[in-house]
Amino acid sequence: MNPCQECGEPSVITLAYGPHYFCKKHFLHFFEKRVRKTIRVNRLIEPKDKVVVGVSGGKDSMATLFLLQKILGKTISLHALMLDEGIPGYRDKAIAKAVDGCEQWGIPYTVAKHQEEVGYSTTEVFQKIQENPKLGSSCGYCGTFRREILNRKAIEMKATKLATGHNLDDEMQSVAMNLFTGDLFRLARLGPRSGNHELEGFVPRIKPLYECPEKEVMAYANLAGIPHYSDECCPYSWMAKRNHFRKAINDLEANLPGSKFALLSSFRQLKPMLAKEEFRQKANLQKCVQCGQVTTQTVCGACKLIKRLNESTGKNEAPSHGAGLLVPAIKRGKKLTCATTKGYRPTERGRSFPHGETDEPLVQIQ
Ligand code: SF4
Ligand SMILES: [Zn+2]
Ligand SMILES: [Zn+2]
Fold first, then answer.
1. What pTM did the predictor assign?
2. Cys bridge to 144: 49, 149, 189, 301, which one at CB 3.0-4.6 A?
3. Is 184 helix (H, G, I), strand (E, B) or coil?
4. Structural domains of the chain, with CATH
5. What is the mean pLDDT of each successive set of 10 residues along the chain, which is 366 residues long?
6. In a mutational test of the pocket of ligand 1, which residue from 121, 125, 164, 336 has the highest number of ligand atoms less than 8 Å from its CB?
C-alpha cells in the first residue's frame, strides 16, 4: 500500500482515477472538502434554509444527513424524512438505523409509509405485478411514489430545500439511462439542483453528494462511523433497469479510471444546451389536474400508477393520494446496494418498465 499523499502515513484507501492515496484522516478531509465545494459552487443551500433530508437508512442518505449537520448545522434547520415503502425485513431494519443516527445527532425525524400515503406498500405492488406482469416493475412504482411523497411531505413541513443522497454513480446512471431512452427532457432536469425553483408546489431538490463516487461514500460512512444499513438489499431490486447501467458504467470505470468524472464533465457541458428554449418549454413543470402535485404532464406519474393498480384490482375510485395544492389531502389507503456490493442480476428479458423508473434512483431512500 502506498503512503498517504498528504502525510506519508500508511494509506487506507486508493482512488484509482488520481491516483490518490489517503490515510483515514486525509480521506475524510478530502471527501468533506469535495462536498463543501459542491454545496458552495452550486449554491445548494442558503443561510436559514429549512432542509428536509430524504433518509432511507443507507450509507448515502445517512452520510448526507451527517455532513449537512456537520458543515451547516449552525445556520440551517434540518429534518430527516424517512419513507417506509413497506418491505418487511429490509426497510424496517434500515429505518431503525436511521432512527439511531437521528437520535445520536439530535436531528428530528418523521416516518411516512407508502401504504398510508398512496394506498399501496411496495410489497403489495410486487404481489400485483406477480399476478399481472404487464403492470411493470416494483421500482417504477416505488420510485415514483417516493418522489411524490417526499415532495408533498416537504411542502407540509414548509421545507425550503429537499436533500437526497444521490451520489455520482446514481447521477451518471440516470444520465446514461435518459440518453439511451432518448428522454432529453428528463436529462435536462438532472443536476445538483433540480426542478423549477420558482414554481409553487415544488420543493427544490439538492444533491450534496452529487460529485462523490458511490464507493467513496461507502468508505466515508464506514470510516466516519456513520450508522447505516448495508446488510441486505431490497428483495425487488433485481427488477430495476438501472442495474444494467450500473454494471456498464462500473465496468468502464474499472477499465478506464475516471470515466464517471468524464461523463459528468460531458453532462455539464451538455446541460446548458438542453436548457435551451425547446427543452425548457417541454420540460416546464405544471400541476397535476388530479392531485395538484407538480408534474411535467397533465396527470402526474403517481396518479397514473395508482389508477393502474386500482384498475388491476377492480377498485373504481379516482386516485386521491397526496395533499396536493388543488385538492385537500385525502390519505388512502438499499438503495440498490446489492447490485453494487453483492453482484449483479440481470433483469428478466422482455419485461416492460413503467416510465417512472428511468428517472431517479432510489432514495437511498436510499
Ligand atoms: S430497489 Fe428501491 S425502488 Fe426498487 S422496490 Fe426496492 S426500495 Fe423500491
Ligand atoms: Zn494522511
Ligand atoms: Zn397527481
1. 0.83
2. 301
3. helix
4. 1-41 (no CATH), 46-358 (3.40.50.620)
5. 95 96 98 98 95 98 98 96 96 97 98 97 96 93 96 95 98 96 87 72 93 98 97 89 95 97 96 73 75 86 94 65 36 37 33 31 29
6. 336
